[in-house]
Amino acid sequence: MCGIIGCVGRQEETLDVLLHGLSKLEYRGYDSAGVALAGKRDAVDIEKRAGKLENLQEALEGVEMQGTVGIGHTRWSTHGPPTDSNAHPHADCEGQVAVLHNGIIENFQEIRDELVASGHDFASDTDTEVVPHLIEDALAEGASPEAAFREALSRIEGSYAIAAIFTGTEAAFCARQDSPLVLGLDADAYYLASDVPAFRDYTDQVIYMEDGEVARLDPDGWAVTDSSGALVEKDPHVVEWDAKETGKSGYDHYMIKEVHEQPRALRECLRGRVDELGDQVQLEEFAGLAPPSSVQFVACGTSYHAALYGAQLFREAGVPAQAFLASEYRTSPPPIGSNLVIGITQSGETADTLSALREASRRGAPTLAVTNVVGSSAARECDHTLYIRAGPEIGVAASKTFASQLAALNVLSLAITRTGDSREAIGALRDLPSAVQEVLDESTGEAVAKEYIDADAYFFIGRGYQYPVALEGALKMKEITYKHAEGFAAGELKHGPLALVTERTPVIAIAVGDGDAAQKTVGNIKEVEARNASVIAVTDGESGVERYADHVLPVPESHPRTAAVTASVQLQLLAYHSAAQLGRSIDKPRNLAKSVTVE
Ligand code: M6R
Questions:
Q1: In angstroms, how far apart are the furthest CA atoms of the chain?
Q2: Does 594 qualify as catalytic in the annotation?
């Protein structure tokens, strides 16, 4: 999704700071990029290009761009294709202002028609471009830059993180409504961004902006005001993670680095929540929360798979629980009753999940966010928040955040349902970081990936806690290899998907422990074998499944709940090595974005 960076006070370094910030935002996914510079002079310089950031950098080589205040943008197309002219920033007819925007302006067509009728020339297909033209009209009426910016905001409806710079001033202005925007404060420079990594190399002091707020940054200071113009007191937060965490640390890709960070991420997630003896969990932040009588989960993508897993945890504790795709929740809302509604979202900014949580809240349900990002919209808007503490995840494909979501959901379900008989599950949680390390140290995922690199499709099957893992394994495989992959509840195979199974479709079966779920999965593997498909078993060896498997990806013996985490690590490695052998763009798969901020 689109990314924003802006800076004030870096003088002749402004352009370098913008380009560096844009490079840090690339992980969000984008299809064009642009920058604008201004200052105490009568021009705003804009340069923008479709495609990768390198295209913009090449274009800038032959250009003299000047300015002591600047804004930069990575665009993920919504209104109009990815072309140079649709890239942000956008200008007015006179070139007095440059504007960039994340989100969607819902009433842009009506405003655009009105502006065109009054003589404005538009240079793009975007919804955003109405803003500089609205500002132009307000400036023509004698408004100051700030007043003109506010006037434009008062006309637009929808979601936005928006920033503008003007001729003749070293100030930058920005505002947010339903789209993330943060300020960074340094001794002699200020930053604005959609996402902290954009300026984390320069400062750890962050201001989180709220909906309806407008900020002015200039070399002499910064101020945040509400929609009426009244000053809002804001205290800076200190970002806890280090800038180094957003580098690749010698790995070829962020994804594989993040896969290897899982033992540490899990330790962080469980720190202070699972005691050393492994027989108690505690979540101080939820000490006063009454056990829920029922739970609804809302989430998308990988987080939805975590939600399916979380719902099982609660059901096992005797609490009725259901997982919903957030994008469907608002369209067809289930009866809310006395449910606690839990939104799972790594970024805390996924539009579909936020909208489902808002719907739940509007209908009177208490809401709880399970998220990775401190100060994210989900964290700010929900009644309660559980941080998964995975550290920044840059690869578009979720990996360590999935593991940390599963671990955090274990603690949450045990803590808030006050489940008594849980010693075994808690012990397995305590041992989970070292179990994951063992998988990382011993995985043969690379060799297995090579063996099946020419497969037509990959099918993943599992039951119980391993069913969401099968879905997640397939999602990982398809998003980074671009090959057909599907996850199924193992028992469903014979109800249709078995028709797809051939000798060219390996079936990856997750069977852990020797319980009913694993034994029945073994039965399903036999069905697959009879159709000449190869079987890759992800197993701890308890069920005897390896007898029927062509390859085994082993996981340590543990509780089925935590084996779901170790099994998903094997599947991440299988997908990663398959994608690496196919030479795919692993960290930024085609058409995908890290943080999906439109519905
Ligand atoms: O930030 P969120 O967890 O709300 O993101 C939801 C999905 O977009 C996300 O999990 C997506 O499916 C993964 N990046 C896929 O690996």
A1: 81
A2: yes
